[in-house]
């Protein structure tokens, strides 16, 4: 297949989707590229209007996931995690390879439970979830490094999407999805303890770490480790500990722990708060 015959579909024209679009267009590779979103106001100055497709909600509608996916060579999912399974089902329908950047594991569980099985389908298209930074590159690097050790004791993955500065009391300016941020601050986090798979609460496991002479804090968040904890646990490495934590500026954890655990605010309120009232930045 020549490049001109490859049609890449990006679903989600927010910060991440627009960045992916810009990188692909900037390479001048000859691919045909389309990007879709439910909101035409998301059309960014960097997106050629001829490449943009508006998807209406609720689904199904005149133009749904299924209609956008049909005829594409591959789909890149840059939507909030809540739409992962819906979009994946459209990729199943047309046997289109699927990539997503999400930290959420609901799609993993959906596939593990073989919910895709039907009278006409027993297999899957090429599926690549968790291909962002965390999970994604960070776990690929960690997995590669573990192969250099004959005796493995600790695997500590620490990742943080930090702005160049943060002047508010939360010590945080948003640079990606508010939906994803709140989701990773909730639920259970996958770890390996003494060689066995386990789960711990998000926002627990607080620690201080020093990078280039500056102190930061880190704590468990869900999804960032992808399936890596289960992969290592299945290798039955005696005594190994494996975990993933998110890095933040010192002081951030105190406020989010208050909001999430002390006040126990509902997820929709927290998501609305982080999407509307936390300063945003492109300087991360």
From TrEMBL:
Protein name in UniProt: Saccharopine dehydrogenase NADP binding domain-containing protein
- InterPro entries named in the record: NAD(P)-bd_dom_sf, Sacchrp_dh-like_C, Sacchrp_dh_NADP-bd
Q: Which residues form the Saccharopine dehydrogenase NADP binding domain?
A: 8-103
- Native organism is marine metagenome
Q: Which residues cross the membrane?
A: none
The Saccharopine dehydrogenase-like C-terminal domain sits at 132-259
């Amino acid at each position: 297949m020549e490049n001109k015959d490859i049609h890449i579909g990006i679903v989600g024209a927010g910060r991440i989707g627009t960045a992916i679009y810009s990188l692909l267009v900037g390479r001048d590779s000859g691919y045909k590229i389309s990007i879709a979103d439910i909101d035409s106001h998301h059309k960014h100055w960097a997106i050629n209007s001829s490449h943009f497709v508006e998807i209406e909600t609720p689904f199904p509608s005149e133009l749904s996931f299924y209609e956008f996916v049909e005829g594409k060579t591959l789909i890149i999912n840059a939507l909030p995690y809540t739409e992962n399974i819906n979009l994946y089902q459209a990729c199943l329908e047309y046997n289109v390879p699927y990539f997503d950047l999400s930290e959420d594991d609901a799609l993993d569980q959906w596939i593990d439970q073989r919910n895709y099985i039907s009278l006409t389908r027993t297999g899957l298209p090429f599926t690549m979830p968790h291909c962002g930074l965390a999970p994604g590159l960070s776990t690929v690097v960690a997995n590669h490094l573990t192969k250099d050790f004959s005796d493995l004791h600790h695997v500590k993955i620490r990742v943080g999407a930090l702005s160049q500065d943060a002047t508010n009391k939360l010590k945080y300016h948003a640079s990606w999805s508010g939906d994803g941020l709140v989701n990773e601050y909730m639920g259970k986090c996958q770890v390996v303890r003494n060689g066995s798979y386990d789960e711990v609460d998000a926002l627990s496991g607080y620690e201080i770490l020093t990078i280039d002479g500056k102190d930061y804090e880190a704590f468990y968040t869900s999804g960032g480790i992808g399936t890596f904890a289960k992969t290592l646990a299945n290798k039955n490495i005696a005594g190994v500990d494996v975990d993933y934590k998110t890095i933040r500026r010192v002081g951030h954890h105190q406020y989010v722990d208050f909001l999430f655990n002390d006040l126990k605010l509902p997820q929709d309120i927290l998501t609305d708060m982080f999407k509307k009232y936390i300063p945003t930045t492109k300087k991360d």
